[in-house]
Amino acid sequence: MGPLRWLMLWLTAAAPLWGAAPPNILLIISDDHHWGDYGFMGHSQVRTPHLDRLAAQGLSFPRGYVPSSLCCPSLASIITGLQPHQHKVTSNDPPRPEGIKPAEFQKSKAFLEGREVMSRHLEAVPTLPRLLAANGYLSLQTGKWWQGDFRRGGFTHGMTRGARHGDEGLDIGRKTLEPIFEFIAQSKKQAKPFFIWYAPMMPHDPHTPPERLLAKYRDKAPSLHVARYWAMVEWFDETCGALLAHLDKEGLAGNTLVAYVADNGWITKPDTGRPAPRSKQSPYEGGLRTPILLRWPGVIKPAQSPHLATSLDLAPTLLVAAGLKPTPEMPGLNLLDDKAVASRKALFGACYTHNAVDLHHPAANLRWRWMIAGDWKLIVPAAQREPGETQLFNLSKDPDESHDVAAKERPRVAELRAQLDTWWPGKQ
User: Fold this and answer.
1) Residue 143's domain spans which residues?
2) Maximum alpha-carbon separation in the chain
3) Could you read off the pLDDT of 45-63 as tens digits, one per residue?
4) H-type helices in 81-139, by residue range?
């Protein structure tokens, strides 16, 4: 079913529920960023004054999660509000034949054909830009974008033309913010609300921060590699501050909903600078957890929520704020609906192979399924790919997931496993 057909069936453009003009939307997505590496999350060294202020001014969810801990499927889930097994973009890249190196594969016909399949999967489902267009929004893509030309995601404007994960779009933040400033000016001139996808490759490697920032952390971090990553986090925070200051300057802050999330986590190995095993691509907190922030002055009351949230909630939240209805397929909640958020019983997700095994059957790429119910977290490996045992952690007592208590809590494991299988059995 094509995007226009989806719009005809499931969405009804309406006046915003807030009784005013639909808000502008700035969606900030950091890249490979550990959930604790912020001032407002309690880090003792990393400075993030602009995100700290954003958290203080809005509604924050410290217990936020992404459904999958890898860039491409996570971003696809943010923009669609769907689980990877729903939109079928489960991996970063297509299947790679044996004996061919990644760099060589990315130049091959098979790679291009595989990426085309992945882009068509995303075109087959509604996306935030396409849905927001029903209420007159202009939309801008910047930064990370894996699914071909920006137009294929429904954006009216953008930077990425089709290379693997962003091409010219990756200049945003690291080199310039001008495309965003120019787009805002154009939207104001046309008197149309805007949606901005700001997903810079920051603090993602290469960790090449300005020396002025690196100097702050050289003697505070356990290694130079960690210092570089910490400095990248602060550099990213500076770019967020520049965007927020521009909204103030243009008189737009009052009617702009700013949302923040990270696409997946990251833990730097001090000796190599590479990701540690329990960060990105893993089912552990270091890969899946992220704070989620929402600021809309005069509409969203500043508060910190103790409840669970997921990046899948962003699409329905932003759509409702814009006066639109989420599609029935979206499993997320409107985070501005306090009652719905408080009544949530569990979160679910799954992690997949970096390179897909089968582009049409998500279960073929599955590594782990996971769920969180209250303080309990269950991790179930896919038997065909991960040889480990089912694990259970009590996150309130063991936030670092150091003590697997599955053997001691067999009835609880069985109960949660039944819920997980009901959600998605992970079988073809």
Assistant:
1) 3-82+125-343
2) 63
3) 999 999 999 999 999 999 9
4) 84-87, 102-105, 109-123, 128-133
Domain annotation covers residue 374: no
Q: What's the predicted TM-score (pTM) here?
A: 0.94
Q: Look at residue 112 and tell me if it is in a domain.
A: no
∠ Cα 65 68 69 (to 5°): 85
- What CATH number did the domain enclosing 176 receive? 3.40.720.10
Task: Report the alpha-carbon angle 311-301-377, nearest 5.
Answer: 35
Q: Are 66 and 29 in contact (CB under 8 A)?
A: no
Residue whose entry in the numeric block shows the structure tokens 């997931």: 401
Domain count, the chain: 1
Q: How far apart are CA 292 and CA 289, in angstroms?
A: 10
**What is the structure's pLDDT at 164?**
82
Cβ neighbors of 220 (< 8 A, separation 6 or more) are 45, 227, 230
Cβ count near 298 (within 10 Å): 9
Tokens of 424: 């998605």
Asked whether residue 290 is domain-assigned, the answer is yes
Domain membership of residue 16 (yes or no) is yes
Classify burial at 230, counting beta carbons within 10 Å of its beta carbon; exposed 0-12, middle 13-18, buried 19 or more: buried
Distance CA 129, CA 25 (A): 11
